[in-house]
Amino acid sequence: MKLLFDQNLSPRLPHSLADLYPNSLHVRTINLHDATDTAIWNYAKQNSFILVSKDSDFQQRSLLYGSPPKFIWIRLGNSSVQEIENLLRSYSISIHTFAHNNLESHLILP
Fold this sequence. Notes:
The chain has helices at residues 13-16, 37-46, 56-65, 81-90, 92-99, and strands spanning 3-5, 25-26, 50-53, 71-74, 106-109. The longest helix is centred in the middle third of the chain and has 10 residues, at 37-46. It is globular, with a radius of gyration of 12 Å. The chain is built from 5 helices and 5 strands. It has a 5-stranded parallel sheet, with helices on both faces. It has one domain (3-109). It is of the alpha/beta class.
């Protein structure tokens, strides 16, 4: 399973979470850090990524268009990189289950 981290999340996350989510990327790595939501959405869709963001716009897009791509919405307020990493680690079973569920297009993490 591959996660694509949006610009509002740390570019360190793909590396620090590689043991659980191998082949994940940050939008900076693929020169999409200043891209529109549509461009990021399309990249995730075309390359089989699950999009991860704190941006509610992607959740609305997910409701409108469904998947692919799937979308994980992180709803933590101001938080450290470590807190985001811990959240994604603690929900790894839910995230992996979500990745294989064909009926759900988005997952909301508190």
